[in-house]
Design goal:
The protein is mostly helical. The protein has one domain. The protein has two helices and no strands. The protein has helices at about 15-20, 50-65. The longest helix has 15 residues, at about 50-65. About 0% of the residues are buried. The model has no long low-confidence stretch (mean pLDDT about 85). This is Short-chain dehydrogenase. It comes from Lichenibacterium ramalinae.
């Protein structure tokens, strides 16, 4: 989605990834985090919802015919 309905500036979309890949700044020298505009940001709480994860995997398996091993 883009244009007036875009939720952010698409021209900035790559900047945080480039910063994480190339910067020596202490904030960029971490792993396993979520970032937004070169700053840490907590993930959506739904990402820690195991029931939602199971439902997503079940829906993917139903659509694809391929179930992931438990």
């Amino acid at each position: 989605m883009g244009g007036r309905a875009a939720t952010d500036d698409l021209a900035r979309g790559h900047l945080t990834q480039a910063w994480l890949a190339t910067s020596d700044a202490p904030g960029a020298r971490v792993t396993g985090g979520h970032f937004y505009h070169e700053a840490p940001r907590p993930p959506d709480p739904a990402l820690r919802d195991e029931a939602a994860q199971d439902a997503l995997l079940a829906a993917c398996a139903e659509l694809s015919g391929i179930a992931l091993p438990a």
